[in-house]
Write a structure and sequence with these properties.
This protein has 460 residues and is an alpha/beta fold. This is von Willebrand factor type A domain-containing protein.
Length: 460
């Protein structure tokens, strides 16, 4: 007898099998979600990471702002998390406040770090960027027309660039070293309207100038620095992560940094490259004459970079103020750094206006703390403007670690009765524009030398 269909599918799965399949699918989905969402996954790069410990700013200093900004932007775009902190890299000018230094892999960087008292936390630095080098001028020049004797070298700005250009153009190391010693200038702008060219990078060329690229470049490394009193361990660890990321992201460059001999490096370094003057050298610059003692406004840099020198600076200002006031002149004191509080717009503070109160100046100098960046040009412009409004000659004595606002204009000193003396302290590069407006420039290599340097600046 034939069987009749009852409408039931004999091949249907049992409920237990269906449940098992559902469980397997859920497990696979959870595994995929875990892999995609775990820290460091590129799948979740568009999502905001959890900042369990909060936000952390990573201070990055560099000899080349364009290179550092590019590295900072790339690192920030990766949404880095270090020790449960969401890290944001920021560019700073003060090496003492930095957790990373981006600079040429060269003795010039070694010298700078040593002068600043900073040490690198890794044994071997890896390249993170290259910058083509060449020459720049306010007129166009073909590569084949560039001769070594026509090139000026701003070694104070970046010795590595000058060393690479000199090596590329010279017939040998001795010729390159001689050019670096004899043809150095403060900045590229010093050759404006001259029949010369300045060694520089493309990004470092002055605005509006023509850049001629050579077949050479400078290699940059990201050097994580050890922690200090002003750089926490968390920042130091973030600096190591920044350096790792930058090295792993670097694809290499076309032009390579040339082999630069010790002879050329020695000539390029700011502290050792100057040709020594001899007694028979009639062209040697004359020693600066002692300035005349007059009413004096002290302008003190209280940025982070001044931190190791502040007590000595305060003592030197107090002693000098008493001497100036004792000679019958007025004294005053301003301090400056980048604004530290919300709503504050200007970088300088008028603490003691010009008057006979030397002890008020000494007391105010002893109450300062440090913070921020040295906005020197803004403060000096304001101080000299104030000095010009005072009846009689006034000397502005600037005690500074360098300049963070080098892009700001520095107007001509207002009034014939305003004089400027500059005391530079610390490892950061002096601002040549500030030196140009000064009657007297002195340098203190250590905190112990500040007393004599400030005394010379006021004319004692």
């Amino acid at each position: 007898m034939g069987r009749h269909s009852d409408g039931t599918n004999n091949y249907s799965l049992s409920r237990s099998v269906i449940a098992a399949l559902i469980i397997v699918v859920l497990v696979i989905a959870m595994a995929i979600w875990y892999v995609a969402a775990r820290p460091g996954s590129t799948t979740a790069d568009h999502e905001e990471p959890d900042c369990v410990a909060g936000e952390l700013e990573l201070p990055v200093a560099s000899s080349d702002e364009a290179v550092a900004r590019s590295l900072n932007d790339a690192y920030a775009a990766s949404h880095p998390v270090v020790r449960d902190y969401c890290v944001t890299p920021i560019l700073v000018s003060d090496l003492s406040a930095a957790a990373v230094y981006v600079g040429s892999d060269s003795p010039a960087t070694d010298q700078l770090l040593e002068q600043a008292g900073r040490t690198v936390s890794v044994a071997d630095a890896e390249p993170v960027a290259t910058q083509p080098v060449g020459v720049a001028a306010d007129v166009e020049v073909a590569r084949e027309d560039v001769a070594l004797e026509q090139v000026a070298f701003p070694t104070d700005v970046d010795p590595a660039v000058s060393a690479a250009v000199a090596t590329e153009l010279a017939a040998g190391d001795e010729d390159a070293a001689a050019a670096l010693r004899d043809q150095r200038v403060h900045t590229a702008e010093d050759v404006l309207n001259e029949d010369r060219y300045a060694a520089t990078t493309r990004d470092g060329s002055p605005v509006g100038w023509f850049f001629t690229e050579l077949d050479s470049s400078v290699s940059f490394a990201a050097l994580p620095l050890n922690q200090t009193e002003s750089v926490s361990e968390d920042k130091a660890r973030a600096g190591q992560d920044f350096a790792r990321f930058a090295a792993e992201s670097f694809a290499g460059g076309d032009a390579q940094q040339p082999e630069i001999s010790d002879t050329v490096w020695e000539a390029a370094l700011p502290a050792t490259g100057q040709a020594p003057a001899t007694p028979a050298d009639d062209d040697a610059p004359e020693a600066q004459a002692a300035p005349e003692v007059m009413s004096t406004l002290f302008l003190l840099d209280t940025s982070d970079a001044m931190s190791p020198f502040l007590p000595a600076a305060a003592e030197a200002i107090g002693e000098a103020a008493r001497g100036v006031a004792g000679a019958g002149h007025s004294v005053g004191l301003w301090n400056y750094s980048s604004p530290l509080n919300p709503g504050v717009q200007k970088s300088y503070r008028e603490n003691v206006m010009l008057g006979p109160a030397a002890e008020a100046v000494a007391a105010a100098a002893g109450r300062f703390s440090t913070g921020g960046q040295p906005n020197t040009r803004e403060a000096l412009s304001a101080a000299t403007g104030y000095a010009a409004e005072v009846q009689g000659p006034v000397r502005v004595v600037l005690i500074t670690t360098g300049t963070a606002d080098s892009g700001a204009a520095l107007p001509e000193i207002a009034g014939d009765d305003v004089r400027v003396s500059v005391v530079h302290i610390g490892p950061n590069e002096p601002d040549p524009a500030v030196a140009d407006v000064a009657e007297v420039v002195t340098t203190a290599q250590t905190a112990e030398g500040l007393n004599d340097a400030v005394g010379q600046a006021v004319g004692e």
